[in-house]
C-alpha cells in the first residue's frame, strides 16, 4: 500500500538533488501516495473523456526479428468506450473502428497523448499529477503525456535526443528494457523513420537477429517491470524499449530538461537538414514511408538551414552568457547547464556539486541494475530488482568510461557500417574479412555478388547521421562559427 500523502521518503528538494546526481535509471517507491492520478484507470478516463475521439496505433502480435516502427502501423480514431469493449471481446459489443482488428491478432496503443489537449476543457485534472513533489515547482499534468495500451503494445527501442523522463505507472504493468548511452554502437542507430527528438534502433531487442546485428550481443540490458504507483526515472540518452504486459495499461510520462544542451540542438538541426535534403530528393529508392507520424511535415532546405543557424546562434548566446560569468574558453563546446526552470546555473562547468553527494539508494529508491549480456532469457524477470547483475557491481562499474574506449567509439561505429568486408581508405577495393583460422568468410561467388550490393539512400543516411558522426560535425561547425565570429568582430 502506498504511503500516506503526508509521508514521503524524499522532500521535493531532496528529490531534485538526487535527480541531478543520477547517472542510471531508478524506480521511486512510495512517492505518489495521495496523487489523484492514481485513479486514472482506463474506465475512469473513459467517463471523463466521453465521446472524445483518440487516435490508437495498432500492430500485429506476430513475432518478427524487426522493430515495428510507427510508420508501419495501422491507425484508428475511437472513443475509450470502444477501446474497452474491444479489449473485453464481449459478444455483440460495439467496438466501433476496432471491428476490423481482432484483439486476438492485434494490440492497440494510445501513445503520447498530450494531457493539456485531452483535458483542455477539464483543466482541474492537470492538478491530479503532482510533479512538484519531485522538485519541479508548478509542473503537473499539463506538461505530461498519457499512454493507454493493451498487452503487447510497445514503443520501438530508441533514445530521446533531449531531456530525461519521469514515468508514473497507473494501471497494469509495463516492462522497460534500458541500455546505457555507451551501448549506442551496439544498437545500430537509425534516423529512418525520422523523428526530430528520437533516434531509433534497428534491432528488435526481444528477438534480435544477431546475424545482421552481431554487436548487439554485447549490449548491456537494464530490465525493470514498473508496477502501479511507482515512478521510473530514465536519464538523458538512455535507450529504452517499452512493452505492456497486462490487458490494459495506463501511464503518465513527463519529459523534462534538467540541463538544457544547446550543442545537442545544433546536432539535431544538422541531422534534420541532412535527412530532409536527401529524402526529399526524387529517386528510385526514396519511396518509403520515412517521416514518423509524430512529425508535422517536410521542411524545405531553406527552412532547415534557418533552423541550423538559429540553433548555432542560441548555442553561442548561451556560451557567451556563461563566459561572462566564468570567463569560459569560447572554444569549449560543452553544453551550458541550466536548472529545471531554464535558468543558467552558476556553475557552468561540468562539476555537479562542490560538496560530495551519495545517492540514497534503499527501499524507496531502487537502482535498475545492469546485466552483463543481453539475451531473450533476461526478459523473463518481472521484478524491480534485476537478477544476473554485473557481479553485484554498480552501474558505474558496468559502463564504458575510459578515455580509450571513448576514442575508439567512432571508429567502431564506422566499422559496423562496413558490413562483412574490410575496405581500403579509398573504398575502391574490398576483400572478405578473414576468420581466425585463415579461411575466407565468403566464397568467390558470394564475394562477387556482395561487392556489387546496391547502397541505398537509407544506407547512406545511416552512416551520415550516426550520432557519433553528427557529434563530430557539430563540433567542427561550432569551431568554424567561432573562428568566423572572431574575425568579423571588431576588437
From TrEMBL:
Residues 107-271 form the JmjC domain. It comes from the Eukaryota. Its main location: cytoplasm. Residues 372-391, 427-451 are annotated as: Disordered. Transmembrane segments: none annotated. Keywords: Cytoplasm. Gene3D superfamilies: Cupin. GO terms for cellular component: cytoplasm. It is found in: Cytoplasm. InterPro entries: Cupin_8 (IPR041667), JmjC_dom (IPR003347). May play a role in cellular stress response. This is JmjC domain-containing protein. It comes from Perca flavescens (American yellow perch). The lineage of its organism: Eukaryota, Metazoa, Chordata, Craniata, Vertebrata.
Amino acid at each position: 500500500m502506498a504511503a500516506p500523502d503526508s509521508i514521503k521518503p524524499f522532500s521535493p528538494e531532496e528529490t531534485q538533488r538526487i535527480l541531478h546526481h543520477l547517472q542510471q535509471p531508478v524506480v521511486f517507491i512510495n512517492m505518489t501516495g495521495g496523487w489523484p492520478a492514481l485513479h486514472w484507470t482506463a474506465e475512469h478516463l473513459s467517463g471523463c473523456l466521453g465521446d472524445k475521439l483518440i487516435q490508437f496505433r495498432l500492430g500485429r502480435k506476430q513475432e518478427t526479428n524487426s522493430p515495428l516502427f510507427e510508420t508501419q502501423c495501422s491507425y484508428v480514431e475511437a472513443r475509450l468506450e470502444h477501446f474497452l469493449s474491444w479489449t473485453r471481446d464481449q459478444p455483440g459489443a460495439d467496438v466501433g473502428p476496432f471491428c476490423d482488428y481482432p484483439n486476438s491478432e492485434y494490440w492497440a496503443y494510445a501513445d503520447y497523448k498530450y494531457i493539456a489537449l485531452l483535458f483542455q476543457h477539464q483543466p482541474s485534472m492537470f492538478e491530479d499529477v503532482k510533479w512538484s513533489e519531485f522538485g519541479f515547482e508548478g509542473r503537473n499534468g499539463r506538461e505530461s503525456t498519457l499512454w493507454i495500451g493493451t498487452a503487447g503494445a510497445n514503443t520501438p527501442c530508441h533514445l530521446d535526443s533531449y531531456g530525461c523522463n519521469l514515468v508514473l505507472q497507473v494501471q497494469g504493468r509495463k516492462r522497460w528494457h534500458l541500455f546505457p548511452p555507451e551501448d549506442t554502437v551496439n544498437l545500430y542507430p537509425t534516423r529512418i523513420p525520422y523523428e526530430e527528438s528520437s533516434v531509433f534502433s534497428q534491432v528488435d531487442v526481444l528477438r534480435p537477429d544477431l546475424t545482421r546485428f552481431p554487436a548487439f550481443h554485447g549490449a548491456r540490458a537494464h530490465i525493470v517491470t514498473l508496477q502501479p504507483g511507482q515512478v521510473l526515472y530514465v536519464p538523458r540518452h538512455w535507450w529504452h524499449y517499452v512493452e505492456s504486459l497486462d490487458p490494459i495499461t495506463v501511464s503518465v510520462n513527463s519529459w523534462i530538461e534538467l540541463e538544457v544542451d544547446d550543442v545537442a540542438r545544433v546536432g539535431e538541426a544538422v541531422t534534420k537538414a541532412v535527412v530532409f535534403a536527401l529524402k526529399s530528393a526524387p529517386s528510385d529508392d526514396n519511396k518509403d514511408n520515412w517521416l514518423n507520424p509524430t512529425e508535422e511535415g517536410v521542411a524545405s532546405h531553406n527552412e532547415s538551414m534557418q533552423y541550423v543557424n538559429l540553433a548555432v546562434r542560441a548555442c553561442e548566446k548561451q556560451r557567451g552568457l556563461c563566459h561572462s560569468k566564468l570567463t569560459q574558453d569560447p572554444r569549449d563546446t560543452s553544453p551550458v547547464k541550466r536548472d529545471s526552470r531554464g535558468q543558467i546555473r552558476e556553475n557552468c562547468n561540468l562539476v555537479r556539486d562542490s560538496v560530495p553527494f551519495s545517492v540514497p539508494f534503499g527501499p524507496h529508491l531502487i537502482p535498475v541494475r545492469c546485466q552483463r549480456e543481453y539475451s531473450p532469457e533476461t526478459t523473463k524477470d518481472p521484478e524491480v530488482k534485476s537478477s544476473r547483475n554485473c557481479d553485484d557491481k554498480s552501474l558505474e562499474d558496468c559502463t564504458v568510461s575510459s578515455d580509450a574506449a571513448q576514442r575508439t567509439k567512432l571508429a567502431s561505429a564506422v566499422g559496423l557500417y562496413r558490413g562483412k568486408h574490410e575496405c581500403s581508405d579509398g573504398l575502391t577495393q574490398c576483400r572478405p574479412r578473414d576468420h581466425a583460422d585463415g579461411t575466407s568468410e565468403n566464397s568467390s561467388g558470394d564475394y562477387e555478388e556482395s561487392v556489387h550490393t546496391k547502397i541505398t539512400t537509407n544506407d547512406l543516411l545511416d552512416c551520415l547521421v550516426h550520432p557519433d558522426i553528427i557529434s563530430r560535425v557539430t563540433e567542427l561547425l561550432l569551431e568554424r562559427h567561432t573562428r568566423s565570429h572572431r574575425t568579423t568582430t571588431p576588437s
